[in-house]
Write a structure and sequence with these properties.
Layout (H helix, E strand, L loop, with lengths): L12 E7 L6 H9 L5 E9 L5 H9 L5 E6 L4 H11 L4 E4 L5 E2 L3 H11 L3 E11 L5 E2 L2 H13 L2 H7 L10 E3 L2 H5 L9 H11 L3 E13 L10 H19 L8 H13 L3 H14 L6 H4 L2 H10 L1
Parallel strand pairs: 1-2, 1-4, 2-3, 6-9
Antiparallel strand pairs: 4-8, 5-9, 6-7, 6-8
Helix pairs in contact: 5-6, 6-8, 6-10, 8-9, 9-11, 11-13
């Protein structure tokens, strides 16, 4: 039973942790999954070529719980590691936890209950708490503003491209069947979470959002998102372009006024020219998402960099 008294059953969730050089944090991440209780069918942890003691710690943890499946691989990047884990997942629901983050108690019960009550929704997320590298809680007013922006807009695509209020793949809790509709994560280093969520929005996937901190995001010096803001902006514009491109396809394209609202958001962030350039490229290539071929095309990427 969850705290609201509704039965949510057992063995309904597969969790994927892409692990890379987080020996200091992986124990807490794993513990936060297992403490979700009998709802966890399996925890798939894939070490992506860590150079610290992450793998040896995981071998120890895996020996203590038969729900843990631990694998190692040569370094392939977060998106590829997540995709490999999701392909292995067998439960009704799948979720991703980055190896430096952790879940709050009761997260799975709350999100499963929300999705059980709304059969038309396929993905859920929550508010987020924040800690520093030493585990001390910190404030992040930006997220409060981002969530307020979503509540005002009540438009998932617009809200995500304006302020990515879901923030991280660690906040994605979804029916496994959604992957058959949307596909896997694209080969982006910084915004594979946003691009996936925007593809969901363009395909009119409904989100259940619980505005309370059911996961903890850790800020520390090695966060990927802090590496290169110019590259983040290129991927941000490209992710927005995927949404605009997809939203205008099919038998029920979004109205012109909504496209205009997308352009207003992107113009405010100085990304409109780059997004338009990317939309044209997607149409020329007949692509409906970011591909390896696109992201490794140096001519295209240089063109994007010049526009952001």
């Amino acid at each position: 039973m969850d705290q609201g008294g509704a039965a949510v059953s057992e063995g309904r969730v597969s969790v994927v942790i892409p692990l890379y050089n987080h020996a200091d944090y992986i124990r807490q991440a794993v513990r936060s999954v297992l403490e979700q209780g009998a709802l966890v069918q399996e925890l798939i942890v894939i070490d992506d070529g860590s150079k610290d003691s992450s793998a040896s710690i995981m071998r120890e943890l895996a020996a203590g719980d038969d729900r843990i499946r631990f694998l190692t691989q040569e370094n392939s990047g977060a998106h590829a590691t997540i995709n490999r884990g999701l392909e292995m997942a067998e439960a009704e629901f799948v979720t991703v936890l980055n190896s430096d983050d952790y879940y709050a108690p009761g997260r799975f019960a709350a999100l499963i209950r929300a999705l059980d009550l709304d059969a038309g929704a396929d993905i859920a997320g929550s508010g987020i708490g924040f800690v520093d590298g030493d585990g001390q809680q910190i404030e992040n007013p930006w997220l409060n503003d981002a969530i307020d922006n979503y509540k005002r807009k009540r438009n998932l695509g617009l809200a995500l491209m304006d302020y990515n209020f879901l923030m991280t793949t660690s906040n994605f809790f979804m029916r496994r069947s959604l992957l058959d509709r949307i596909g896997n994560f694209s080969p982006l280093r910084y915004t594979h979470d946003m691009e996936f969520a925007l593809r969901c929005a363009a395909r009119r996937v409904r989100l259940c959002f619980l505005d309370r901190p059911l996961m903890m995001y850790r800020f520390h010096g090695a966060n990927t998102i802090s590496e290169d803001h110019a590259k983040v902006r290129v991927e941000w514009a490209l992710s927005a372009a995927v949404y605009i491109h997809l939203a205008q396809m099919g038998s029920h394209p979004v109205p012109d006024d909504q496209v205009a609202r997308c352009h207003e958001v992107l113009d405010r962030h100085g990304l409109l020219r780059a997004a338009r350039y990317a939309v044209d490229e997607l149409r020329t290539r007949g692509a409906d998402r970011v591909t390896d071929t696109l992201i490794t095309d140096t001519g295209f990427i240089d063109g994007m960099k010049a526009l952001v």
